[in-house]
Design brief:
It is built from 11 helices and 8 strands. The chain has 226 residues and is an alpha/beta fold. It has an 8-stranded parallel barrel, surrounded by 8 helices. Helix 6 packs across helix 8. The structure holds erythose-4-phosphate. The site of erythose-4-phosphate (E4P) has 11 residues, from helix 7.
Length: 226
């Protein structure tokens, strides 16, 4: 499973890019709104220069014509730009029209398997089930990933990838991989937590303490011998 970063914050993207694990970035209007004063086009172009992989830029039109117009505009910014459109009937039309022009789409706000299937049939490059928001409604977000993966597996003509979105904690990342997601898009804080383990910190502290003791013993032995 590949890892994307779910943010429009350039500082976070720069730092996570250095870790060598990022295959793409997803943004959305809410994430862009957190970056006070940042220009959308500049932000997307800059992200494309930082991460070599699909970079999702989301449309804000509610009708297919508007989504297509935005999609054509965003796709011209960089070959790695993927157009995010919502899982609505207007969104389906926009995906099929953009796909015919060779423009890749990420169908977002997926909350059931039928939406994922129909988005795939319309020509989506990826579908984004929002597992955290499903969990918030007392349903099982991971079951949604499993069900979509099962349907896609039974229909080998579907090449659409499953992108687990709305990830809230490290366990979501592991479980998405086990459930058959091709990609998980993670907030920066979740990615950092994925590498955190108290036994790693304790182990490092004890290795370094032992090394310092060894050096002190060797220095004492050298001084005594001299
Ligand atoms: C995905 O592409 C979305 O940007 C994102 O995962 C939404 O997650 P949220 O439920 O934390 O807003």
């Amino acid at each position: 499973m590949k890892i994307y970063l779910d943010t429009a914050n350039l500082g976070e993207i720069r730092e996570a890019a250095r870790w060598g694990i990022l295959s793409g970035v997803t943004t959305n209007p809410s994430l862009m709104a957190q970056e006070e004063g940042a220009d959308f086009e500049d932000t997307i172009r800059t992200i494309c220069g930082l991460v070599d992989g699909p970079i999702s830029a989301e449309t804000v039109s509610e009708d297919a014509d508007g989504m297509v117009a935005e999609g054509v505009e965003f796709a011209a910014w960089h070959p790695n730009v993927i157009i995010k459109v919502p899982a609505t009937l207007q969104g389906l039309e926009a995906v099929s029209r953009l796909a015919r022009r060779g423009i890749r789409c990420n169908v977002t706000l997926i909350f059931n398997t039928n939406q994922a299937l129909m988005a795939a049939l319309a020509g989506a490059f990826v579908v984004s089930p929002f597992i955290g928001r499903v969990d918030d409604m007392s349903y099982d977000g991971m079951e949604l990933i499993r069900e979509i993966a099962a349907v896609f597996d039974q229909n080998p003509e579907i090449r659409t990838q499953i992108l687990a979105a709305s990830i809230r904690h490290p366990r979501h990342v592991t479980e998405s991989a086990l459930a058959g997601a091709h990609i998980a898009t993670c907030p920066f804080g979740v990615l950092k937590k994925c590498m955190k383990h108290p036994l790693t910190d304790l182990g490092m502290a004890s290795f370094l303490a032992d090394w310092r003791k060894r050096e002190a013993r060797m220095a004492l032995a050298a001084a005594t011998a001299g």
